Amino acid sequence: MKIGISNDHSAVDLKNSVLKHLEEKGYDVINFGTDSAESFDYPLAATVLAKAIQNKEVDLGIAICGTGVGISIACNKHKGIRACCCSEATSARLTREHNDSNIICFGARIVSTELANDIVDTFLTTPFSNGERHKRRIAMIHEIEE
Predict the structure, then answer these.
(1) Is 98 a catalytic residue?
(2) Helical axes 113-125 vs 12-24, angle rounded to 10°
(3) Is residue 65 annotated as part of the catalytic site, yes or no?
(4) CA-CA distances (angstroms) from residue 61 to 28, 90, 110?
(5) In the chain, what are the domains?
């Protein structure tokens, strides 16, 4: 599985920790984020990751900013993207099971490295439940995008 990861300036350290964690687990990770503490706008970080998913360059994505909120809003402006901002693993599991989310978002100022890794591990190992009600609701979301 190929994973994309992107971030703004507030999340460089957490991104690097999560990236290392994923590589140690054997994931192929592409870094789309900044590696500088110099100001970097989260909508840019969101856009490059969302486009990589749309173009099937990566299977799933991880987006990190200060709170996770701004970058998740920006990710969700892109067609076909279902990004969820999570600060614990239960929401990460449920957003994969019920929403087939393709980007997980969280905040470097909100979650610890250990919690971020738990959120990511849960997100990446949880399959979509594929239930009819969930498929119907995702189809409704796609209709809204049109």
Answers:
(1) yes
(2) 50
(3) yes
(4) 12, 18, 19
(5) 2-145 (3.40.1400.10)
Model pLDDT for residues 74-130, shown as the tens digit of each residue = 999 999 999 999 999 999 999 999 999 999 999 999 999 999 999 999 999 999 998
pLDDT, tens digit (0-9, with 9 covering 90-100), for 18-37:
999 999 999 999 999 999 99
Annotated catalytic residue, options 78, 85, 86, 98: 98
Selected catalytic residue, list 9, 65, 75, 85: 65
CB atoms within 10 A of CB 119: 25
**Structure tokens given for 113:** 């490295």
CA 22 to the chain's CA centroid: 13
Task: Look up the pTM and report it.
Answer: 0.96
Q: In what order do the strands lie in the sheet with 60-65?
A: 28-31, 2-7, 60-65, 103-107, 83-85
Q: Per the structure block, which two tokens stand in for 79?
A: 């067609």
